[in-house]
């Protein structure tokens, strides 16, 4: 079998799966899934992004690579650009870096940087709510674990709720020039690095 590796820029409001599933949405309007964007058969997402998150996903039919990148025992970096309410002060950034406690469970230490300006992202559809009285800031966060809604819970725990969340890198793979809804096959070099994991 030929192994395939696909990089996909998941847009906002798209499910990280190839089918609707058995439970219809409450408003009876079908939700977009990966099959609405990626016409490659027999590949599956490595991990997931919530419906309200955006960014890089890796899709593959290589079970061992999928396992290594999904299993928390094999920590690998995932980098996110995170728009939060207010500008976190040094104390809040230190808390995020050291790990925070969420529902009795402490997150691993991570890398967090306050970005000087908004990153070069396409506008989100629909746009983020704009409230003049509440300033926002952008963080770059790199984690080596991926618990459910972890980034959102971490920023909320230090008083800075997440407004927009975009994954920009998984290990050595990055969004590059992909735009929301676009996909591409990995390059030979990217594929070889995945196989060495």
Number of helical stretches of at least 4 residues: 4
Quote the average pLDDT: 90
State the distance separating the first and last CA atoms: 20 Å
Shape, principal axes of CA atoms: globular
What is the percent of helical residues?
A: 10-25%
Low-confidence stretches: none
Number of strand elements: 11
SSE string, helix = H, strand = E? EEEHEHEEEEHEEEH
Report the major sheet: 9 strands, mixed
Percent of residues in beta strands? 25-35%
Assign the CATH architecture of the largest domain: 2-Layer Sandwich
The top level CATH class name of the largest domain: Alpha Beta
Family: Belongs to the pseudouridine synthase RsuA family.
GO molecular function: catalytic activity, acting on RNA; pseudouridine synthase activity; RNA binding
InterPro entries: PsdUridine_s_RsuA/RluB/E/F_cat, PsdUridine_synth_cat_dom_sf, PsdUridine_synth_RsuA/RluA, PsdUridine_synth_RsuA/RluB/E/F, PsdUridine_synth_RsuA/RluB_CS, RsuA_PseudoU_synthase, TruA/RsuA/RluB/E/F_N
Keywords: Isomerase
Report on the architecture of this protein.
By secondary structure, the chain is α+β, with helices and mostly antiparallel strands. The chain folds into two domains: about 1-75 and about 170-195, 2-Layer Sandwich (Alpha-Beta Plaits); about 75-170, 2-Layer Sandwich (Alpha-Beta Plaits), CATH 3.30.70. Helix content is about 15%, strand content about 25%. It contains four helices and eleven strands; from the N terminus they run E-E-E-H-E-H-E-E-E-E-H-E-E-E-H. It has helices spanning about 65-70, 90-100, 150-155, 190-195, and strands spanning about 5-10, 45, 55-60, 80-85, 100, 105, 110-115, 135-145, 160-170, 175, 185. The strands form two sheets. Strands 1, 2, 3, 4, 7, 8, 9, 10 and 11 form a nine-stranded mixed beta sheet that branches. Strand 5 (about 100) and strand 6 form a beta hairpin. It is an enzyme of class 5 (isomerase). It comes from Shackletoniella antarctica. Pfam families: PseudoU_synth_2.
